[in-house]
Amino acid sequence: MMRPVDTSFTKILSLTSDEALRRRFMVLDEPIKANMRFGLLLEVLDKVAEEAALNYVNRYHPDARVVTAAIDNIVVRHVTDMSRDVHFKARINHVGRSSLEVGIRVEQPGGPVRHIASCYFTMVARSGMGEGAVSVVLPGLDYEEDIEKERAAKALQRREDYKRQQALLKEPPSREEFEMLTDLHSAQDEPGFSGLLAGRLTADAWERMYPEQENVPKKIFGGYLIRRAYELASICCEQVAPNRPIPAAVNRINFFHPVRMGDKLHYTARVVYTNGSMICVEANIERISRDRTTKAMSNSCLFTFVNVDDELQHQPVPLVYPANYGEDARYLAAHRSCQDLRKHRQLI
Ligand code: GDP
Asked: What's 86's domain CATH number?
């Protein structure tokens, strides 16, 4: 039986030695702080998770493939330093029946090592194509060392936490939350109200998927979709950020329906919540099949940005005002999600 340590996989982005690569990952061709394209980083992460998972799955099922089912909260600990390499250290933490959790530690070597983020991907092993695709059963891992046992336990805990959070989302607002929403609504009734209405803070984009983007047969590379969603979210965010919004966290991404070649994709982003220097942007991807008969939500992401000045000092963001039931629900969900993230750790 294999142990988690035997599934280790490392990818290195050689920003120091590969000039073309560094340029590809830059936001601006200027020496600004926080100059790493976060969307591309997410794309690399998804690819690394896929490779780490596939190495394991293909030992037992040579023809199987893996798809991303979900990405757990990612909190950015430090901004990336473009003058150092980036290491992605991946390892399988836990194997379930046909799903597995891949953990990835993103760091930059040097003294001291810079911890960028720790990420957890849930991947599912599948075999067969299209409608005939089925999940395959995977042999488990042997968790010998304490750290392996802990990580396996934490993987299960993350799954439980997510279920609990989803259940909580259906809970009505607490008294405090209700008052928060009431205040936001009464402000809008005041004469001369000039606040930012959440409903106006949106952006959208359309795209058709071509064979070039194909990853596993007939499916589209998940990392690419998240990158596009993130990039639209960051553009949308600038409508409310008085300074520069930089990514602080991804509050979980779910993959509901696979995207296929020939699909048209509709990306929508909206600012749903702000608090202090934080801005939450929801980005959804809807797929419309080539024969135009199927329309389904493919992805739903919530990104948290912080508004900073050139020195990365946090700067305040105006309030946004939800005006209807749907906007209230999104405002509340983002509010709860951010409280949850902050309970665990300080956002950058
Ligand atoms: P942890 O998950 O709470 O232990 O947080 P870490 O930031 O230490 O690690 C995040 C994830 O990255 C872990 O769950 C592992 O799956 C993976 N990982 C951590 N350290 C290493 C390492 O040295 N090598 C490899 N290949 N993967 C690692």
From this structure: 3.10.129.10
